[in-house]
Amino acid sequence: MSRSSSRSPHRTGHHKYVIKATGEAARNYDFKAARPPGRKKTNLIETIGNLAKSCLGGGVVAIHESYKMCGLWTSFVLTIVFGFCISYAMYMIAHSAQRIYGRVQVPQMSYPDLAEATLETGPFVSIRKYSKCFRYLVDFTICFNLFGSCCVYQIMMARTIKQLVEGTNEVSLEGNPPLRVYIICLVVPCTLLGMITSLKYLAPFSIVADFIIFTVACATVHYASKVAETSPLDMPVFKTVAGLFEFMGVCIFSMEGLGAVMAVENNMEEPRNMGRALFGGMSIVVSIVVTIGFFGYWGFGEMSKSPVTLNFPLEPFPIALKLLLGFMIYVTFALNFWFPFDLMWYYIKNKYDPSKYWLWERIYRAIFICGITCIATTFPNVSKFIGVLGSFCISNMGFIYPAFIELCLDWTDPGLGFMMWRFWRFILIVTFGLTLCVVGTYTNVKGLIKESF
């Protein structure tokens, strides 16, 4: 469930990148051998598992609600299509990095490193001076995505607690106390959890989280099949264009692991097998997302709620599963908070005396979590919030940025190809990304504001 990575990838950048080799010399650079020894590398099976954990975010337990907005069969097909698109986006990032390693003679990079190095050594001389800005833009998008995910997790926890306290299948913004009070009450436990500064105390929980998600998927099939009142063939095929863009945002958010793809690649025994690892990992991810989305909407219909466990009956096993999911989301909150805060703290700490880092780091952790709680309290709608994150962040991280990086690398070696087909591929990907970003973000923000006030 973690979308985070270790501290080291973000300490490799912030230096001048220059082209040291081209052509065959660059292609023959053995970046695998040049990587520093130390940490145990992951084999293909372990890498597939890490990718699945990185890509399965909290949005997976809300995917059924986006199926409700778009239509069952359109959503079913598009989930598979977007699974392929996200796999290709992650492959673009990893493959672009492996191409630039040889040019700058650097054996490993993070995603922000890749962005900076590509622009700094790219063919467009007039914009090379903006390479640091490109790096910061990638940093900002990653932080926006993961801090936003923390808001989503707080809302999910609050909704689960509210249902268990009230003992009802209906979970609304209103009530005594209303949902926003539950969200505010979570600021203390979330702040305490956010004070954990070492990832090694949190990472083992990701294995338990994956088991819980798999159990939730199986339980969704079971309970949905029991209560379904109609055949899947009688469910709506397609609803509205607005619903389509809402679905796209949630679906893409539920399957992406773009912020972690370079951390996974950097830790592989055979990094050139990234394509095979992506095929295996994304097959698992798409299967789970399709299962929860399809059965969740088919079984629970137009009254379905997020997270999907809210639709399960109030019986001993489902109640235990709700509690486990709440625990999983709580731990995932810490995992998702750790990575963007670590990135932000790298810049913030320069303002303070190193002897006071311990104190200021914890003060800023508390401030950031209070800010996350304020945003979650203001906009307590899970699916629309996820839609905003998916539409804005993933359209940039997964389509626009990687397409631009790949174009820069292709420009001179191997060139744009027959009839400039690589340039037209760039235009196609960027057009899709911009459409999703503009229309999807507008649609989801509009719905978020409407349903929050």
Automatic annotation (TrEMBL):
<dbReference type="Pfam" id="PF01490">
    <property type="entry name" value="Aa_trans"/>
</dbReference>
<feature type="transmembrane region" description="Helical">
    <location>
        <begin position="136"/>
        <end position="156"/>
    </location>
</feature>
<protein>
    <submittedName>
        <fullName>Proton-coupled amino acid transporter-like protein pathetic</fullName>
    </submittedName>
</protein>
<feature type="transmembrane region" description="Helical">
    <location>
        <begin position="203"/>
        <end position="224"/>
    </location>
</feature>
<feature type="domain" description="Amino acid transporter transmembrane">
    <location>
        <begin position="41"/>
        <end position="442"/>
    </location>
</feature>
<keyword id="KW-0812">Transmembrane</keyword>
<dbReference type="InterPro" id="IPR013057">
    <property type="entry name" value="AA_transpt_TM"/>
</dbReference>
<feature type="transmembrane region" description="Helical">
    <location>
        <begin position="179"/>
        <end position="196"/>
    </location>
</feature>
<feature type="transmembrane region" description="Helical">
    <location>
        <begin position="244"/>
        <end position="265"/>
    </location>
</feature>
<feature type="transmembrane region" description="Helical">
    <location>
        <begin position="319"/>
        <end position="341"/>
    </location>
</feature>
<keyword id="KW-0472">Membrane</keyword>
<feature type="transmembrane region" description="Helical">
    <location>
        <begin position="277"/>
        <end position="299"/>
    </location>
</feature>
<feature type="transmembrane region" description="Helical">
    <location>
        <begin position="362"/>
        <end position="379"/>
    </location>
</feature>
<feature type="transmembrane region" description="Helical">
    <location>
        <begin position="385"/>
        <end position="411"/>
    </location>
</feature>
<feature type="transmembrane region" description="Helical">
    <location>
        <begin position="423"/>
        <end position="443"/>
    </location>
</feature>
<keyword id="KW-1133">Transmembrane helix</keyword>
<feature type="transmembrane region" description="Helical">
    <location>
        <begin position="72"/>
        <end position="93"/>
    </location>
</feature>
